Amino acid sequence: MEIAIVRAAHLHVYLDELREIGVPVARELGSSRLPSWIEETPDAYISIPLSFEWVARCSRDIELMDLGFRASRRGSLASLSAPLRHAILDAPTGFARMRALLRLATLDDSALATRMQPEGDQVRVICDLEGLGRNPFICLGEWLSLQALISIVRSVAGPRWCPPEMTFVSRQRPSAASQEAFANTRILVGQPHTSILVGSDVLAQPSPAIGLRPHRSGREATDADETPDWSFTTALRSAIRPYLADGYPALPLMAEALGLSERTLQRRLHQVGRTYSDVVQEARFDLARDLLVDPSARIIDVAMAAGYQNPQHFARAFRRLTGVPPTAYRRSAAAAA
Prior knowledge:
By secondary structure, the chain is of the alpha+beta class.
């Protein structure tokens, strides 16, 4: 996984925890390489290595395993993207809910490699962060992944359920607070996989009544049935998108943010016959197209959000890609809807 990205919503739990311990989050974000609008755009995708590094730098004297545990307690199924959340809540049993998460987890995190494997009368649910096993801050992501798995099991087994075993790739020791919260759980570190053990009988339990599940729109229902395809250019385009409001994101900035060298980024783009400017233009178009669906959004605001200081430049660029000006595209989209 050369480009590891995650929905900004999953970083928000760390922003809340950092504020709790007195970190001036807005100031720290302002001096970071993270997108400036990260708190207003929970569905934007951001670099996982860059997020880990920034959280670790802001953690002060708190051990990362403790910070990860604290932040994970703020997470819930509500933190997941709408298509993923609805696919989980629509499933009839704990086992089916877990399968929905494993099938669509990369909607929220492109690096997640998930599977279930039986172990006697139990099931080990594995959620590895592919390509990040040697990252010194990996426990920050592991805690959030494990919390998602635990939340799913608790959705059928009740809020007090805890796994008999939880494993981390990170070698950092679990904090006293996490050991107290999971007093009957065997917590192992330095393991080959990030995982929890669940009894097969627990996963077999039925989900709550269907009347308690939220209604799904047609768009969400369609998206939830599609396994995301994170090709190199797709992931790069998604990573570029939240930077556009601040202007054209230079290639050195994006390479550094993604933990790649400029040469590696250019080489990978050359291998697929693309240029960096091509991908930036596509990211601008994708963002503009989504914003134009809202009839109340002014063209000048759409242009600014897509990184154009001049709406005329935006209109010309949009027409080169679509053959029609933004206003005509908006009318046709409205008619199709």
